[in-house]
Description:
Elements (H helix, E strand, L loop, with lengths): L5 E6 L6 E6 L2 H10 L5 H5 L3 E7 L3 H13 L2 H11 L7 H5 L1
Antiparallel strand pairs: 1-2, 1-3
Amino acid sequence: MDKQPAVYILSNRERGTLYVGVTGNLKLRVWEHRQGFVDGFTKRYGVKRLVWYEWVADFPSAIQREKRIKKWNRAWKLELIEGSNPSWKDLWEDLCD
């Protein structure tokens, strides 16, 4: 199975704590966060809601995009999320369809 790089943002609630990550298997990685299998920041703060993601052509580009977004100020991250997901819907269900 080919890996599909993706950059994603998780939150614990609308306009709550944000986590930016990168993965080659978005569905599996979000499931791991939701189950609490990923120790650290997301587990400590209950960050499980997938609120934004973007498919990227290759891993170097995905890592570069993740690093760039991590450096953004909070307002820019909120604008990115709300540009495609204004209601802060958990996109996990869409990913599983």
